[in-house]
TrEMBL record:
InterPro entries in the record: Rossmann-like_a/b/a_fold (IPR014729), Universal_stress_UspA (IPR006015), UspA (IPR006016)
UniProt similarity note: Belongs to the universal stress protein A family.
Name the UniProt record assigns to this protein: Universal stress protein UspA
Entry-linked Gene3D superfamilies: HUPs
One Pfam family matching this protein: Usp
Signal peptide: none
Annotated ranges, domain UspA: 6-143, 151-278
Length: 300
């Protein structure tokens, strides 16, 4: 039998990354999984004669920095969750590519919203965006400092593109012991017809939702159908949420919101973590057999 899929988080030495480590540690304990910490070392491509530093010396310093950052992150995780099983690895390569590769073996990848390399203007950050588009498991981007005391809010576009996100929302709510709010928006040109449209969308949503809710009988849920712009409505209801969950495609635009195409400025105000679940993603059931808190990689 393979090892349990870990909760994986990227470590880059930033405060945002350490917040994501705390979140990921709680996620791992609640779901009975190990925590995997990953640090990306971007190898230099040349010497630095003006600084009298060789490529080999820069490379060695980078690995030493990676080891220190992983140790700090592991201590933060243990302070938060003392019984947590932790493994850590420094790997060589671009952080975005490495995290996409890690997503093959992870149950979920957790990231900070803004690391040392910036990308703060992107709703998910550059690594989160790469995982949202190319990842193979759900990704959670930790935003804001609010504790996870509110309900899980999941935005629904078309059901085919949102079913995986809804199921993930119920799974999270089940482990957290909180309710789920399922939210759909639409734009009605003729206000006189809005009542009938709302009832139609609500009945359709409830019919789909009943099948998922039956798998989680202890999770309280409600359906909301709201007329308005997806980004504005999502952020309004997100003010009361502990976690926002969306898919990556759909006709009403929740996926586009996080990819920057809908209400681009709204995600910056997101008060809580955001989870993105691509349609059809399936967590891996095996990961590599690593030793806890090892620092590995090709240093040549």
């Amino acid at each position: 039998m393979g090892k349990r899929e870990p909760v994986t988080t990227g470590v880059d030495g930033s405060e945002a990354a350490l917040r994501s480590v705390r979140w990921a540690a709680g996620e791992a304990v609640r779901s009975g999984r190990p925590l995997r910490l990953v640090h990306a070392c971007v190898p230099p491509g040349h010497d630095y004669p003006n600084l009298e530093v060789t490529e080999a010396e820069v490379r060695e310093a980078m690995w030493a920095t990676g080891a220190r950052r992983l140790e700090i992150a592991a201590n933060v995780a243990r302070t938060s969750e003392p019984t947590l099983e932790i493994e850590a690895e420094a790997r060589s390569g671009d952080p975005r590519a490495l995290l996409v590769d890690e997503s093959w073996r992870a149950a979920v990848v957790v990231l900070g919203s803004r690391g040392l390399t910036g990308a703060g203007r992107l709703p998910l950050g550059s690594s989160g965006l790469a995982l949202a588009v190319h990842g193979h498991c759900p990704v959670i981007v930790v935003r804001g400092d609010r504790s996870r005391s509110g309900p899980v809010l999941v935005g629904v576009d078309d059901w085919a593109g949102s079913a995986a996100a809804v199921r993930f929302a119920f799974q999270e709510a089940s482990t957290l012991g909180v309710p789920v709010t399922v939210l759909k928006t639409w734009r009605e040109i003729d206000p006189a017809g809005s009542g009938g449209a709302r009832e139609f969308f609500l009945r359709s949503l409830e019919n789909h939702l009943n099948r998922v809710a039956a798998e989680f009988p202890h999770v309280v849920s409600e359906c909301l159908v709201v007329r308005g712009r997806p980004g504005r409505v999502l952020m309004e209801y997100g003010e009361r949420a502990g976690l926002i969950v969306v898919g990556t495609r759909g006709d009403s635009g929740f996926g586009g919101l996080l990819l920057g195409s809908v209400d681009q400025n709204s995600p910056g105000r997101a008060p809580c973590p955001i989870a993105v679940v691509r349609p059809g993603v399936v967590p891996a059931f095996e990961i590599r057999d690593e030793q806890p808190l090892s620092v590995k990689g090709d240093r040549t």
